[in-house]
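Aim 2 progress update. The chain analyzed this quarter is reproduced below.
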Amino acid sequence: YHGDEDKYYNKPNIKLFSNEDGVLLYLLGRSITYSGYFLNFCTVKYDSDGNFLWAKEYDGPGGGNDYPSDMVVDSEGNVYVTGSSEGEGTGLDYCTIKYDSEGNEIWVRRYDGEEHEDDYASGIAIGEDDCIYVTGACGEYWDKIVTIKYDSEGNEVWVRSFEEGYELFAFDIDVNGEGDIYIAGDVEWSFLTIKYNSEGDLLWYRVYEGGSGGWYPYFLDTTPDNGVVISGTYYGMDSINYRTICYDVDGNLIWANNCPEDSGSESYHTSDLNVDDFGSVYGTGNYRTVKYDREGNELWLTSGAEAIALGEYPYFYTTDTVFSGDADFLTIKYRIELTYITLLSFTADASGASAVNLRWSISADEGDDILGFNLYRRELQGGAIHKLRIQPGDVGEASRDNLPDWQRVNSTIITGTNPYSYTDTGVAENTQYEYKLEVVLTDNEGGETLGTTTVETGIPAGFTILRLYPNPVSDIVNCILSVPHSCEIEIAIYDISGRRLLSKEVHIENKGESEVSFGIDNLADGVYSLIMSNGATNLSRRFVIAR
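Predicted structure tokens:
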């Protein structure tokens, strides 16, 4: 972005807002005049394709420098920006502005601290009912961290001052899923993390020293389990690096990591931080953007930026200052490359006699980019059902043979949100089917099979012998039966006088139709009865041995 020709632009921040039109981008940075070098707030909006929509500048009542620091976007697409602005005889004051989605200024709220010294507003966050929290440092010697809560109309709800220690400064603020407020600041050159509830009551604070040197925690974001991640810069005697630390909801330190040092520089500064819905952490700085998993393990590195924002997975955005004669804002959209997909569940349930409802859920950690899914089915009948071949003295194991070819169910690729669902209406009644789920990837035209499942439409609910064949028989008698669930079956053969000649126990793994085969080589020609029992019901069929 390069607005007026007589100005240049730097120090951009970035936030996203999603609606039916896609992902909208908001930038907040400085506009600086070449003549006089006065700074103003500059807020810019782009649509999801990167097209410029509007830009607004704010020049405070004192006519001096105005330093923008942070912004948030509410549920209606209104944008709130905050920073420090020159007042009329009051020095720098907190300044918070609300714009609607069209860029119209709705209200401006200024705060001049009790000592009427310079007041530095550094962070802004949004809570329930689109209430706004602003934090920063006040006092002649920065001896207090002052946090203000406004409602969405700009009315002041409460003001809280934290004064534990000296040389206090606040840098960032956020609200977790329980409505509690976290503030990242420094106290005596160490990381300071403060937690309030929504009523302004102090819950706890933690100081992280981490060794010699100065520690400045510039950015924070909350985690899905309502903890907090803080990223800051360490200024040591021989090097500068940025460190990321994680606390749980009770203030226990979970992990701490430095940015990997592989750029050849000894000065690594942090400049922004985001946590995604899975708890993964994205931190950026002057040389590196790094991603950690929720346990603090490094996943990847890419080039650095001044600010980062997470879009709909797997996209994220960075913005930076670039110099091409003048200083401008540069915004880049990235796509994360995936590496693997895990099938968490895949079920098929009959809906009446001629429809099957299929449902599945996946976990996609950095894996192949998903385009959609295909479903395939085949009948498990006519030699394709579960078969148990039993010879006297042996218990058979289930096997699948003579399976028909897979038939694709869907005409177009199945898309949607996780978990996914699809209804197959092309099935026949009283039939058992097997379904195969395939994921289609942007870099794999053939797709990848994730798993299979089976279902029956209209299968008898009870324990039933459906057919005995061949009859007469010479060496093996085959019995097709149906069971309502996995169970143990006893099979016995009796002669015409009622003598028990052979018997075996068989485990039926799957409900629905199965086929059991029983070898009768040692029996003489004659009339016999085959009796099956599941412990509650006995079923009988007669057959003839004739050679």
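The domain at 464-545 is CATH 2.60.40.2550 (Immunoglobulin-like). The longest strand covers residues 444-457. These observations will guide the mutagenesis experiments scheduled for the next reporting period.
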